[in-house]
Amino acid sequence: MKIILIVIAFTVLFFAQQTAKTEVTPEAKKQESAGPAKKTSGSLDDVTVTGEDKLKVKSEKPLLEIKMNLNEAVLSTLDTEKKFLEKAPELSVLRDAVPKILASPQVAFPYLSVFVKEPIANFSLKAMAFDTATWELIVTDSKGKTFKKFEGKGKPPEVIEWSGRNAANKMINVGNPYSYLINLSNQAGNPRTIIGSPFVIHYLVHQENYGLYVSVTRNKIFDVEKEKTKILEDGMPVLNEISDYLKDNFTLSSSIEVYGEEAGVAGEQAKILAQYFMNTLLLPAKNIKYSGYESSIENHRIDIIIKNR
Description:
It is a single chain. This protein is of the alpha+beta class. Among the domains are: 121-200, Sandwich (Immunoglobulin-like), CATH 2.60.40; 203-306, CATH 3.30.1330.60. The protein has seven helices and 13 strands. It has helices at 2-22, 26-34, 72-75, 79-86, 94-97, 236-248, 263-281; strands at 116-117, 121-124, 132-140, 146-153, 159-162, 177-186, 191-195, 199-200, 203-208, 211-217, 254-260, 288-294, 301-306. It has a six-stranded mixed beta sheet, covered by helices on one side. Strands 3, 4, 6, 7 and 8 form a five-stranded antiparallel beta sheet that branches. It is elongated.
């Protein structure tokens, strides 16, 4: 009986508690609609705020453009050419026609061309209105002796090219007068002779077995009458042209030989020329030798020998 009464008491108590929990007052409803109650433990919950930014930031990537002149690096080097082209030269004076900016000993002088190279002469026989059976062309030296002879039968060639050498392959001497004459004979044996004008070559370039010879008549470089070791002003362009040959063969050794009436004077002249080329072209002393020789007047000359063989 006691057990039944205890069960009934616990049942009544349970339902009373459930009724108290489910009973909601209007004030409680207000609080519930307002949101969850704040904790009073002292710690803050993480709050995440989400939304959309209405202020749009408009940005644009700038165009990368580097302005540069591809010729800028070389513009400064063109000043020399510009000055040269803008200069108004006095063509009547060659020295003034060449700008000072080109007046360097290391610059070549292509406008100089006083030197004669092989072949040294062309003889024209085209205008010979003659029924030729035999013909001959004779070149004579300063003493009137035959230096070179061409001959043939029938009509002669229109042009005979001459190297300047004789039958023994010896080259003419610079500074010496040479002449020529043409002998013709027809079928009847009637002769006809044409005498040519004498000619002299003062500047000559010729290749020999010993090297390249640049030969000049001595009195075209030095004042042989008064100051024997003074270089003439008119001789400077000739030395400039000789320098061009030395520049073209800069790595080769050279020698200067001067022939005159006295070996001592000729040797001093050779030394002056060697010093001139060494200073002008910055040649090492070991690359250029010099010597002087006594010789007859028809051999008074200067030989610059470039040993290319």
